[in-house]
Design goal:
By secondary structure, the chain is of the alpha+beta class. It has one domain. The radius of gyration is 13 Å and the shape is flat.
């Protein structure tokens, strides 16, 4: 996913925020699953990654650098 965010930001002239939105909530709605995935809201699955960076914009611009600090699936930690 960081590679896709990097390509969107560097080649498609999207901001990192636009790239993240396109890859999460917009992607979920394109699959008719926006009510269950794509954002962190009550009642949704809560699949997310916590990245080790100071600012969300770093994810797109530091492609190839491993940022994940923790991974959660359905709200449960699967990688510390």
């Amino acid at each position: 996913m960081p590679m896709i965010l990097s390509l969107a930001s560097t080649q498609m002239k999207m901001t990192p925020a636009e790239a993240i939105t396109a890859a999460t909530i917009n992607a979920a709605y394109s699959l008719n699953r926006g009510g269950e995935i794509g954002s962190l809201e009550p009642g949704k699955r809560a699949d997310f990654v916590i990245h080790d960076c100071h600012d969300y914009r770093e994810i797109a611009y530091f492609f190839g650098v491993r940022h994940p600090r923790a991974v959660y699936i359905e709200g449960k930690s699967v990688h510390p």
